[in-house]
What does this fold into?
Amino acid sequence: MKNTIFAIAAIAGLLFANTSVAQDKKEEKKDDSKRKTTLTISNRGIYLSSADSANGVKAGKVKKERTEGIFSSNFAMLDLGFNQLIDNTNYNDPAVKTFLDVPANMQNKSVFTLHTAKSINVNIYPWMIKFRALKTEGQRIYLSSGIGFQFYNFRFENPVTFAKNPARVTMDTIVFTKDKLAMNYLNVPLMLTFKTRVHKDDSGKSSKDKWLVYGFGITEGMRIDSWSKQKSGARGKVKVHDAFGLADFNTCVSAEIGLEGFIRFYATYQVTSLYSNGIDQHPVSFGIRLGGI
It folds into this structure.
């Protein structure tokens, strides 16, 4: 697991290094008195805005040109979605029975029943570097990597309590207004993204072209925090930080589809188990992606 994370991180570093080299290669300088250039960075790409008084361009009028190179950066990709659990646990396993310190009739997957509408997934990628592997009139292919954060929130229907020393799950006797298990991961993604032009603007303005975006990828994550949080009238708010038998690393596969500049959808599946103690659960997340390659 660690070797895989280091490998993906190395790819991200290589992409960044090549970007730095590409950015260091400057074109021949032009007369500053005739042309003023401004760099603009947005989630739609990197642009140079220029005003040329020598060619009769009116003062204040700016011409934008797409200057996406083979290597470029993207910023602030955000996923907002919901979680579900695929439970493959063998509830007859002695280790599982020890971990589930609940009545016998609850020693099954029903103990972990989720309130799906309140089980939230958030993925944040503040910076991504991309390599354009293909560019044709109607097709683009990108390979990208970076650094991100993955957040899971699981809200339970049953009044379960995640205890520590030793780690176990117990069934409480009071009603909670909030009962959740949450965890954060630092992750490194490796994504392959395709863009296919589905409409070309007749006016020739490429910014108005429509592109279908789709792709898939893999992320390797390291758990950096996990906690339980409960709210009730009897106890108020109780928050406990612990590992709770959770695995330290995770591997997820992901997919996305959407229309560039309009809407995108994503889905992830955690290939590795959420726990390291015999509980065999695999989170599935799906929702809307804001920004992206």
Residues 72-290 form one domain. The chain has two domains: 33-68, 72-290. Residues 70 and 117 are 41 Å apart (CA to CA).
